[in-house]
Amino acid sequence: MASRTPSLQTGRNPFRRRPDHAQGPMLEKPRYIRSTALRLGTYLRPEAPALLVTSSLVLLNTALGVAGPYLLGLGIDQIADPPKLLQLTLLALTVYGLHWVSQYGLSYIVAAVMQRVLHSLRRDLFGHLQLLSLRFFDRQPHGQLMSRLTNDIDAINQALSQNLVELASSALSLAAGLAAMFALNRWLALGSLTVLPLMVLSTVGLGARTRKVYRELQAQLATLNGRMEETFSAQRVVQAFGQAASSIEAFEQDNSAVLVTGMHASLVAMLLQPLMSVLQHVEVAVVAGLGGYLVLRGLASIGTIVTFISYVRLLTRPLRQLGNLYNSLQAALAGAERVFEVIDQEPELVDAPQAVSLQDIEGQVVFDGVNFSYLPGLPVLKDVTLSAEAGATVALVGPTGAGKTTMVNLLTRFYDVHDGAIRIDGRDIRSLQKASLRQRLGIVLQDTFLFSASVLENIRYGRLDATDDECIEAATLANADPFIRRLPEGYHTQLSERGSNLSQGQRQLLAIARAVLGSPSILILDEATSSVDTRTELRIQQALLRLMEGRTSFVIAHRLSTIRNADQVLVIHEGRIIERGTHAQLLAQRGFYYNLYMSQFKGTNAS
Amino acid sequence: MPRLFASGPTTALPHRDQKRTHTMRRLLPFVKPHRRDSILALLLVVLITAIELTIPGLVQRIIDFGIAERNISIVRQTTLLMLGAGLVSALLTVGNTFFAVRVTSHVSAELRSALFRKIQSFSFSNLDQFHTGALMVRLTSDVNQLGFLLLMSLRVFTRAPLRLLGSFVLMFLTNRQLASVIFLLLPATTATVFLITTRGWPLFGQAQRRLDRLNTVLQENLAGVRVVKAFVRANHEKARFEAASTDFMQDTVQAMRLFSLLVPTLYLFVNCAMAAVVWFGGPRVVGGRMTEGQLVAFVNYLLAMQFPLFLLGTMATVYSAAQASSGRILEILDTAPGIQNQHGARTLPHVKGRVAFEDVSFSYSQQSDVPVLNGVNLIAEPGETVAILGATGSGKSSLVHLIPRFYDPTAGRVTIDGIDVRDVTVQSLRQQLGVALQHTVLLSGTIRDNIRYGQPDAEDEQVVAAAKAAQAHDFVMDFPAEYDTEIGQRGVRLSGGQRQRIAIARALLVKPRILILDDATSSVDAETEAKIEAAVQRWMVSGTTFIVAQRVSTVLRADRIVVLERGSVVAVGTHPQLLASSSVYREIYESQLGSGGAADG
Questions:
Q1: CA of A148 to nearest chain B CA: how many angstroms apart?
Q2: Taking CB atoms and an 8 Å limit, are B101 and A263 in contact across chains?
Q3: Fewer CB within a 10 Å sphere, N or C end of chain A?
Q4: Coil, strand or helix at B205
Q5: pLDDT digit string (tens) for B528-538?
Q6: Do the beta carbons of residue A118 and residue A164 sit within 8 Å?
Q7: Could you tell me the pLDDT band of residue B95, with boundaries at 50, 70 and 90?
Q8: Domains (ranges, CATH) in chain B?
Q9: Which helix (H) or strand (E) holds A402?
Q10: What is the arithmetic mean of pLDDT over A422-445?
């Protein structure tokens, strides 16, 4: 906001998003200040020795900061006495030198301390995220979660790294300054004090008014930005339907509103500076005038006046920053609150205390009267019962949203059933350790997710201790080897974010290689709808067939070849298995499956 | 402190590119209309500085005439003068702030407006270059950065150098010899600021890169949570994160430690200067070559210089950040819209819908050696449904994008009823076309508003008719608010298939002569898709329909199927014809629907 007195202690970072006139201060209010602050404090506890040193340095700093002007004043009074002057000058230079050391030393230590605290906070947060259930992640767009976390930790960062020490320093400077003033000259000190309460009042009063005005501005900015973002995302539609003119019209309305409110907000915010400025000048005038009068009465020296003028600066600086500090600390606590909210989230389905680790399994899978819903009252699976022999291929077909993906989620224990049970080799999967269960499952999903690492590392994700050769072998089995070797750096080619420098077909092949490496006993496949060129399509089909050999496989099938080759086809509609059998048997039934097949693969209207 | 987890471009990294040194100057025209207010603001700055520079002189007066001559009325008088000066300077500051804020707010708004309008004229090729995130940063963060620089320039940033200069001049005038002692101060300070800033920037840049890495790990864990859990990689990911976090921490601390040298060092310089002043000035006062008041004034001038000196560091930072921002803003403003109306473009008359591609070639960029489309010749008659089939990268979307001039061909031409589409205005052309794009984008608002987006004043009956044809009416009526249902960010979440149907309704509503459906039913189940096709055929009975698809099942019923492979037409005909004559078509058909398909049922 208004006065931008440089931070005394730590270096300023130009990257930090500043609460400038355009957006105003970060206006968050924490709900439980005390408990959040205490909790944040627990992260500081391991740094106790460093913090002790920091506190001593702050004290030293303050003392030296007060000593400097005092020595200067003394010097001015002693100009007639050269040896004394020399003494004082040398003393002053020593003080200044020490001050430099203590200031820099303070920043030096605080930087490391606070970054360590943030590091452990980040680590705890991330560690806990790993424990949370899928439900947590599905519940909110992860872009939102991410920006929330980053903004919040940023706020905590600012508060810890700068504001906390500044607050302590300012408070101490204020106290030390006042004490020194009174020790030096009671009358002059009293005179200076007359202005102080006015300064505090104006900061606090104007601060509240400013926050109110900025809240309004931020709401309007949110509208403007929201509309802009939407327009840009939909820009192609805007062009296609020739609606550019009306877009501009709507924009200009929002823009004008922001202009008016923004001006108003800035003006209010910037009133503080001239106000403080005039109060500071008043104080200097008082010091000079009253000081002059006292000198004439022999109750003060000229040096005293000089010292007091310096002290006036010492006092007003903290007051000018009060508003900023208040906002920053509030924002930090609000942010910390949200971070702790995440850390306090219940972790996902915890393993039962007697959970067993799953050893080698045959792969017989049974769903016994399974019921499930994501939201209460909206059942997604109703009384699903099926049985798959070890090594069998089970194809799941049905309209979108019928419940096929849910069955996959339940088998992997991303979610747990509400009624009924799922058994592997006769054992209820809830009695097994999640980790060991998932390690025996191989999963290839529709939306292939790859990491921004090398191709080799991505494959190795299937089994971290695999050798390079084993990875290549897996890639060969998955029909991925040919295209990998043609990449610019072969297996060491770095994938860009989400693997977007590969085509969709290539990503599928990599995902299959990854799954192959894990040597799963049970395979779960969600076939991508074919947006893939013919050659790659054939490769994928072949690789999948190879992968499914000898393994119990559940396939959410879209390819006719897959369905035709399956040992069992389950038709799922509205959460129930309505038909089951082989492809040929189902066709003969001339029921739901028959209609689906005819309309999809034969091109005639369903009757 | 670098922002943790900051996503998006690093706003303040300096560009080493030399030709950017004049970049910000090019944005000066935005300030020109506000010349008057700006000059007033600057004048006020000069006045304010002048008044504030008198304060040390007034203190000097109190000491030299009030105290030394034991004249208490002078003390009183001068004190009042000081109070007056303070008051006047405060009032002038309010005025300065008023003008500065007004200029800055308007310039920012006008910059935003210019950018927004420019983007509204962008063609698809322009939009391919700039993603939404990049555009948003320019309209928010970058504009704010420039606004901030402008605001500071009209206030504090001009005040500081003036104060410095003024203080030096006054010190010089007060006592030449003593002033020369201080002359070392300025170069020492500038050198320090320069050294620390130039060495610090790369360090912060490094830290920012580590930050991006850290962000990426977090983002991947959020987006790929299923994979991480499925492969039980929590510990592996935690180790990755810890490593990235530690790297970031170390680089940040290093950078912060360097920058924290700045302020204490500047403090030290000023303090030493004050000690020097007293040391050298003292004997002068004693020797009668200087008054005590002058000595005190010197000290006050130095004290007043503290803040401006510190500001030098900040100024460099803000200026640098603003440079980077203005570069990015100019990127947008300098972009020529990819598609523009040619000179003398006329309005497209009411067409029948005969679309012809004459030897059309196309590639997305100049340097691409493999064209997306290669000498395509195709004619579609009014009343026909032409399906374009091919794999990803075959060029099918690109082909139909040429009709509404979303892109222009690099060779050959596209005509409608014999008229080259480049000879007519884009607006009149697109008015007669209806398009449902591959990635469905709906806007926040009611379903009704979305469907009539192309024609905001359409009647309700028209909206319902279009929705019925697109097989959307039924599910819309299932909602409690029916057509007034809000969709988008704060509204109902529609399934992929539902969104596509709304987009089709939107395209149908404008009653186009030529309809383009680009993979527009990929999320719709086969049964519904067939119904849509039938309804669309009825709707577009006299017009021309282009259907782009990857699934053979979508194109089975078209009047003509065009098979594209790597930018060239390899086969044209009806489904039975192609099955018999084209091996490519047969291959695609079999890979999707399996061999012996004809034998079943």
A1: 10
A2: yes
A3: C
A4: helix
A5: 888 899 999 99
A6: no
A7: very high
A8: 20-210+252-333 (1.20.1560.10), 348-432+557-601 (3.40.50.300)
A9: none
A10: 87
